[in-house]
């Protein structure tokens, strides 16, 4: 069986693979041996066709009539997502957000380990955050010089500094960036950027609350 590189798999499929893996982990805990594509689809609000298409990127190992072996499928997804390895994470920006991330128990997991946090604000240098101490940003290049492509970089800087930081990271050889700054970054081809725009997500949730509230008020008017 030949597994495709994660770079060959569409981003939407990669995101869904993480959801599948969470379900599979729960099934492993309760001792379930197999799962059908339709069952996995129903649990996640998808169609069986989408699930089968997504899993086809991993190879052909499902069995008609019995579905997929939970342990095999879980292992294949973990392999394609790199979850069999602990990936080092560096955080750029030791402000409120960066500090919170460095100390959040859920941010360092069986997949990621925060190995450094960097800033240019001198009063922050040397401050202990979780398992690491804040270093000056100028030290980052030397810390990553051997295998920069092996690190996941988190940008937690103000919006105005984010693009400069992203350019610096890509010039060093970093290819994976998680961006918390509310700006679309310009990066070379081959660099993966995932954006986490908290204000946008809150706006979407606020819209959902407002829509629900408006529907409830309209229903009361019609009573």
Please tell me about this protein's structure:
The longest helix is centred in the last third of the chain and has 24 residues, at 198-221. The N and C termini lie far apart (61 Å). The radius of gyration is 21 Å and the shape is globular. The chain has 223 residues and is α/β, with parallel strands linked by helices. Helix 2 (37-44) crosses helix 3 (48-56). It has helices spanning 11-30, 37-44, 48-56, 70-80, 96-103, 140-144, 159-172, 198-221, and strands at residues 34-35, 68-69, 87-92, 112-119, 128-129, 132-136, 152-155, 176-179, 192-195. 25% of the residues are buried. The strands form 2 sheets. It has a 7-stranded mixed β-sheet with strand order 5-6-4-3-7-8-9. Strands 1-2 form a two-stranded antiparallel sheet. It has 8 helices and 9 strands. Helix 7 (159-172) links the parallel strand 7 (152-155) and strand 8 (176-179). The chain has 2 domains: 6-80, Winged helix-like DNA-binding domain superfamily/Winged helix DNA-binding domain (Arc Repressor Mutant, subunit A, Orthogonal Bundle), CATH 1.10.10; 87-200, NAD(P)-binding Rossmann-like Domain (Rossmann fold).
Notable characteristics:
44% helix; two-stranded antiparallel ribbon; alpha/beta; Rossmann fold; Arc Repressor Mutant, subunit A
